[in-house]
Amino acid sequence: MDQDTRTRLERNIFPAAHQACEPWDKFSWHTSAHVAHSSQALTVDVFGTIKASANRDMILDALARTMGLPTGGPWDITLEWAARPSLLREPHPTQVDVYAESPHSLILLECKFTEPDGGACSQTMKRNGETPCDGNYEENVTQEHDMTSRCALSEKGIQYWEIIPKVFHLDAHTDYQPCPFAGPAYQWMRNLVVAYKVGRQKNKQPAVVIVYADHPDLPMAQKVRSQDWTTFVNTVQTDHVSLHVRSFQEILMLAEEVTHPDGGEPTLWRDLSEWVERKMSTITSERSKPKRKRSTSSKAMVVSRNG
Questions:
Q1: What is this structure's pTM?
Q2: According to the model, what pLDDT value does residue 139 have?
């Protein structure tokens, strides 16, 4: 990493979180991590600071308690965590922004800033002139696709649908039009299935948390308050792995609340809250600016040059 890149990244990451990024040259930085709207940078701001905090166990115990998870540290935090490829036979293993684990619980946290939703299934996208899946979960035996599975990913040996009936109120042997996970719910499904499987292997209580920036002009804040989101949440079997939504602001308020009596970090969480609010204000103010229209004279100049 050259010094210019390092400097731009450092300026976009809350100072107390810098320690959590060491060694910087080996950290899995996104190409846009240096810009204000980077969800990775915002995630590192908050959870990197929690990771580096002497009160990490206290904060994560408090967060776990709000979700009904067993408490008791020590807690370990991994930023940019990826599942083992063998876990579900994924050629590209599921990744989450933050993975937190204690002797009794594990939490997978997926963080969103300006993104409108989760990521959709790639099998519905055209590749080499063909679309592996038409968006439906159904038996699909045709001249073009002689599939023995209802899911194109199952056909490739990926085990999502072996776990889905244990995590969702869905039956792997029933057709669904459309597939419940053809769209943005695909990412949440992967997180929940991975959390369930890891929790079973480690004999720990798992949870998945969608963390979002709470501002009325940001799409994920709107999404988690929508009827679509409520409908999706109702499909999850919460007795096996629970699904939660928390805003960055809620988590910071919780951190300040539980660490305040200790007195060791009197202004840290307020400073970080102000840092996060400034980032949100920057983004939302940029989005609210009217787009400049090109003048007629400018268009005429373009036509003239091209003519």
A1: 0.89
A2: 80
